[in-house]
Amino acid sequence: MKVKLVRSFHGRLKRHQACVRGLGLRRMHQVVEVEDTPCTRGMVNAVRYMVKIVEES
């Protein structure tokens, strides 16, 4: 699935920042493709207010 960072992670909780970094997102509006596993789904769910799922595979 493709995930896009739509809100800044600066000033957020440290564990939310870690989730965003763990997904491979570094800058605003960057889109990365991650494997659709329960682990990555949980990370996306934790920071759902900052990211957007662009496309599901």
SS elements, strand count: 3
End-to-end gap? 5 Å
CATH superfamily: Ribosomal protein L30/L7
Class inferred from helices and paired strands: alpha+beta
Query: How confident overall, as mean pLDDT?
Result: 95
What global shape is seen? Answer: globular
Broad CATH class: Alpha Beta
Order of helices and strands: EHEHE
Count of helical stretches = 2
Largest β-sheet summary: 3 strands, antiparallel
Strand adjacency order, main sheet: 2-1-3
- The third-level CATH topology is Ribosomal Protein L30, Chain: A
Q: Which residues sit in consecutive blocks of at least 5 with pLDDT less than 50?
A: none
> What fraction strand?
15-25%
Task: Write the CATH architecture name.
Answer: 2-Layer Sandwich
Radius of gyration: 10 Å
> In the residues, how many domains can be counted?
1
Binned, the helix content reads 25-40%
